[in-house]
Design goal:
The chain is an alpha/beta fold. It has helices at residues 18-30, 43-54, 97-114, 127-138, 151-165, 198-204, 211-222, 224-232, 237-251, 296-315; strands spanning 10-14, 35-39, 64-67, 78-81, 119-122, 145-147, 172-173, 176-177, 185-186, 192-193, 196-197, 256-264, 273-282, 285-289. A six-stranded parallel sheet has the order 3-2-1-4-5-6, with helices on both faces. The chain has a three-stranded antiparallel sheet with strand order 7-10-11. The longest helix is centred in the last third of the chain and has 20 residues, at 296-315. The chain is globular and about 55 Å long. Bound molecules: nicotinamide-adenine-dinucleotide. Residues 14-20, 40-42, 45, 82-87, 96, 100, 103, 106-107, 123-125, 127, 148, 152, 180, 234-236, 239 line the site of nicotinamide-adenine-dinucleotide. Nicotinamide-adenine-dinucleotide is lined by residues 14-20, 40-42, 45, 82-87, 96, 100, 103, 106-107, 123-125, 127, 148, 152, 180, 234-236, 239.
């Protein structure tokens, strides 16, 4: 192999605020990317982050980090979009759409023009609506457009369940699907620990199954961002770790099942909307959206979530 012509693994990040900068730091520590491009409307912010990150290189991995522009997205395997206004205390994610849709119309065509073959990974809220908007504004194939979706909510749910049941969060298998937001849906019907339904697990541990307590775990999951934003103004560590997990699955072609947002076609008759379902992620992006079986209540709630998202999508006139 001619090492001078070898392709270096490039990841671009647009938006170097709390989320983008935390992701950049996690990516640098991981050593997965040889090149990290930082793009922000506030050029000085991107430059400052690049300087600070480069000074960590002697402690981490040989990596080239620089503040660039959209032409530097060329050849990036993954471009993470984390630009835009964040939630303020009490503000819903869907309320952000007016501010962030305008930003999207300027960013997405630029990234796609310079990098028509890369994968776009969206973090900005409302993430499902912006994932759909990305598809329309970029004209990229659906497998190349992924929203972080409920990867974070699923992590919060697994963590809170793990605390309740006293087992490692990684041993709890439970998904949050639908919108990353107020209408998200917990899939209790298939939630399990070691293949045991949660009721059975309660019984085996001699624990009383207390439906209100278990229900509260979902409410804490759904409302976690509001509680964190009230306290520290923003959330970024866990979402950055989720973005890292998706990026790793792509760069290493891992075929990992993750709850992420992508174009949904004919799932229980639900069509033409982006939301999260467990999805196989590989080097090509969305390899397969898994058609999880739901009970009737879950399905009803998911249909409601899809309708809420579609209403917001329609308001954009894409
Ligand atoms: N998907 C999730 O799970 C999740 C979790 C947390 C936050 N978020 C979302 O991520 C987004 C970013 O949050 P944050 O806390 O990092 O915000 P932030 O305000 O700290 O950073 C936003 C950055 O975007 C930049 N920016 C704004 N307009 C731009 C443009 N047109 N081009 C390039 N850069 C531009 C700003 O200069 C700023 O650096 C928000 O929408 C927030 O709601 C998503």
């Amino acid at each position: 192999m001619d090492i001078n012509n070898a392709t270096l693994t490039r990841v671009a990040i647009v938006g170097l605020g709390n989320v983008g900068a935390t992701f950049a730091y996690a990516l640098l520590l991981s050593g997965l990317a040889a090149e990290i491009v930082l793009i922000d409307a506030n050029r000085a912010k991107a430059e400052g982050e690049a300087m600070d990150l480069n000074h960590a290189v002697p402690f981490t991995h040989p990596t080239n980090v620089w503040a660039g522009d959209y032409s530097d997205c060329a050849g990036a395997v993954v471009t993470v979009l984390a630009a835009g206004a964040p939630q303020t205390p009490g503000e819903t994610r869907l309320h952000l759409i007016n501010k962030n849709a305008a930003i999207w119309r300027s960013i997405v065509p630029e990234v796609a023009r310079h990098n028509p073959h890369g994968i776009l990974l969206i973090a900005t809220n409302p993430v499902d609506v912006l994932t759909y908007a990305t598809l329309k504004l970029s004209a990229l194939p659906p497998q190349s457009v992924i929203g972080s979706g409920t990867i974070l909510d699923t992590a919060r749910f697994r963590y809170l369940l793990s605390q309740h049941f006293g087992v490692d969060a990684r041993s709890v298998h439970a998904y949050i699907i639908g919108e990353h937001g107020d209408s998200e849906v917990p899939v209790w019907s298939s939630a399990n620990i070691a293949g045991m339904r949660l009721r059975e697990f309660h019984k085996m541990q001699g624990m009383h199954y207390d439906a209100p307590v278990v229900g509260k775990i979902f409410a804490q999951t759904r409302d976690a961002a509001y509680h964190i934003i009230e306290r520290k103004g923003a959330t970024y560590y866990a979402v950055a770790a989720g973005l890292m997990r998706i990026t790793q699955a792509i760069l290493r072609n891992q075929r990992t099942v993750l709850s992420v947002s992508s174009l949904i076609t004919d799932y229980y008759g639900i069509d033409d909307v982006c939301f999260s379902l467990p999805t196989v992620i590989d080097r090509g992006g969305v390899e397969q959206v898994l058609r999880l079986e739901l009970d009737s209540q879950e399905l009803g709630n998911l249909r409601r979530s899809a309708e809420i998202l579609k209403q917001t999508i329609r308001s954009l006139n894409l």
